[in-house]
Description:
Glutamine Phosphoribosylpyrophosphate, subunit 1, domain 1, homotetramer, alpha+beta, seven-stranded antiparallel beta sheet
Amino acid sequence: MAYSGTPVLLEDLLFKPQNSLVIQSKHSRLGATTVNGDGFGVGWYAEGARPGVYRSTEPAWNDSNLRELSAMARSRRVFAHIRASTGTAVQQSNCHPFRQGDWLWMHNGAIADFSVIKRDLALAVDPALYADIAGSTDSEMLFFLALTLGLHDDPTGAVARAVGLVEEVAGRHGIADPVQMTVATTDGETTWAFRYATAGSARSLFHSTDVATLRAQYPDNPQLHDLSDDARLIVSEPLGDLQGAWREVPESSYVVVRGASEELGSFVPTAP
Amino acid sequence: MAYSGTPVLLEDLLFKPQNSLVIQSKHSRLGATTVNGDGFGVGWYAEGARPGVYRSTEPAWNDSNLRELSAMARSRRVFAHIRASTGTAVQQSNCHPFRQGDWLWMHNGAIADFSVIKRDLALAVDPALYADIAGSTDSEMLFFLALTLGLHDDPTGAVARAVGLVEEVAGRHGIADPVQMTVATTDGETTWAFRYATAGSARSLFHSTDVATLRAQYPDNPQLHDLSDDARLIVSEPLGDLQGAWREVPESSYVVVRGASEELGSFVPTAP
Amino acid sequence: MAYSGTPVLLEDLLFKPQNSLVIQSKHSRLGATTVNGDGFGVGWYAEGARPGVYRSTEPAWNDSNLRELSAMARSRRVFAHIRASTGTAVQQSNCHPFRQGDWLWMHNGAIADFSVIKRDLALAVDPALYADIAGSTDSEMLFFLALTLGLHDDPTGAVARAVGLVEEVAGRHGIADPVQMTVATTDGETTWAFRYATAGSARSLFHSTDVATLRAQYPDNPQLHDLSDDARLIVSEPLGDLQGAWREVPESSYVVVRGASEELGSFVPTAP
Amino acid sequence: MAYSGTPVLLEDLLFKPQNSLVIQSKHSRLGATTVNGDGFGVGWYAEGARPGVYRSTEPAWNDSNLRELSAMARSRRVFAHIRASTGTAVQQSNCHPFRQGDWLWMHNGAIADFSVIKRDLALAVDPALYADIAGSTDSEMLFFLALTLGLHDDPTGAVARAVGLVEEVAGRHGIADPVQMTVATTDGETTWAFRYATAGSARSLFHSTDVATLRAQYPDNPQLHDLSDDARLIVSEPLGDLQGAWREVPESSYVVVRGASEELGSFVPTAP
Lengths: 272, 272, 272, 272
């Protein structure tokens, strides 16, 4: 879940919605797995340009510190993620969002047969960044590939090149359909979200239509009624059932949210 | 899950069966909740009369130390429990099984409005035992009431008196249908298991029929084929689908397993 | 450590001082134990009257989430505590500060032979509060006794009565020198800190003299240079070596900090 | 600490000695740091050729599961390690001992400026092993380099080549005195222990002299009196003060323990 707009308490995003992320952690409707109990993380911008990141290996529904933090922290830009491991260890350094400088990155999905091509991908990472890889996941590797290939200057291009690289390396190893992903990344000002799978049929991704609809979505949440008109949410699953509140991001496309504007584009991996 | 019989590796009980306890922790079929991810515990007898207890607040499916321990520890008597909290904190001291001396105790279910009657129940605990209450759950309180009311000498009577006491105290506070439980307890030689709810409709409880059936249940598990004829399992959910392998313990009854013998009795709470 | 004054980032209090609390967690100079690695906690006031509480069983020096939170959370009133267990379990519910409504409470020290008198003390707690006792420590029990005996209306009197009660109960059980304590408590507006031991020789307690001295204490910390004149710190150990910055709270006394004013009084337990 | 000999309960090794590893975790006498509270691990051989590994990020002195496990697990060969992080994350995958197949490996010390040369070292790891690197430490990297360079067939040679490689790579990056280490490794039958620092002055390492002396060391521990004559211990710090019980392993040397025999050799890194 990626939020931008008027500063809100994290709990208004994480706990109060009808189908909140914390509820999804136990009973996801659309996710690849019902239970996303292998840790979670929250990144939020408040003091300075660098976001804070709170990550835990506990299931989100059990973490009392998350509840406390969420009741106290107010932010204009929040990334939150619940994890269902696809095999790598449940440890903080494998929890999303990942941070590098002022950037955050999170990923749903998987790189097929990651262990087979992990070394080749690691070699493609900028040597100056290599030692900053803190965990062992495919998701973080994809982040470092995107950083290597120009994320700071050309986010949509860099992600296209990173995915293209993974597909090329996988192809050399005879791995079919290597990439399955929704990705969200931000520099603190703009959010880019991607939906793509080599074989089509990517994981779900939605963005909120506009604030008026959001207000209707949460009639009993006065805080959301104070939202500015540029408030936007990008989510894997709608946080509620209201008709018209959510628009699906099509497969093989991306959405860029900057202030109140949304820009949709088509996503095509760039082979190296 | 309560096992007794030939010493087996814990992993043969916890990980290998088709619908193992670890699998149930994520996808229970019969439990009150689908996800039992609020910690777990294993008690096992090996060295001396006192059982070891390994308890963790992590979901069982994520605990790599449980996997390691289970591959190395062999025991003739194993209690294992996965927890779905009914409100009390997720902390080791609230994980089952509870131990006092050589005894183990575990409980599925809940005491209704426990916070309302907790103090009255605590006052009924033997003062010499009061300070040994380590956690905050209704399950542990029930254990201490049973210990107070004669568990060591007359287990079925003590549990009947403990439940009767809870029902009496709850009645004074106007709480309807206070007790919902399956309980298993052992002194290291005998296992007693109870199924009862004040309002009927108690949680499920099964026991294995006999070793021949168990062997048929796990045709591919050579270790279980070495089981002695007195091997027995008591479970909340059958560990597999084989017809005839499991016999339901009726409501308001208990089963006593001593060696190869099972004795079924009817369970009636004793009012104080 | 109890801070009040201009809102500051938690990291300015917890990490930046020369002998910060996080450093003390590994190498305390004045504490009863050198290592205070059995968990820690932070309570802070920001949104609304109710403080947030972040508590962890990890050593403070290792908790990356504490570091993140401290870099993002700004507060006008902060309680922080590092724990060296005197025997009770290392679990979140035993970490200080404890919270009840808008109040926070933390304690260094111990009640001698607590397990012997725990039940008698628990019986003296207001029955309406009993079920809110979440952990198993003497420190939390002392808090609940103070709440029972009038903390909200008369903090110094209530603590005197709570300590008097403990001493009386301990006396009946033949326990010598039962109370060893420094205690700090706040309602969000005022801080009360106590230093007392039945046998004299209580743990150390200091308060900062005034802001001018604090500014001199941290010449390189520009944030503290922006402190208002009413900023005050109460600590178990001075956070730095500067002459004149810290004044010891005498044994058997208390200090009340309200805005820029400090009021010192002598503390005498009130027998029940 | 590396033990081999008659099967003993882990608690006889970890908890009972006067200056046990668990006590050292809080108050090391000879270690580079007094507090080794950044996790710990135990590896032990019992069922089959593959050792079990229990690793935790909690301080050893607090881990109740370690205490339980240690009272129940009996082993003829035990590796145990307490960690003081030199910068890498406190997570299970960074805790020693590391395991690969039937082998265990643990390391005290550090590779200087590891982040600078980490990528070059990773590239030297056998590509078939690369994806098995689970954590982020210099210690695990050294293990994988040794595995790559022939650990299974020629342990002392492989470690010499691994250290030589590190020194060569470090030299190319202008890093002085790159290696500081004591290392212990075992295949389940033999233990190899190394003491070396590029600049001399390596961390301490001792081995027990013989069982008769050990028996004298623990006059009150009847279990150790049942030890076979081939029982041996290799430790960073003597577990007790008895004169003559411990012999220091000289700098730049290794000791091989196979049954009751010890063989000492001099250790010289082999440049690639």
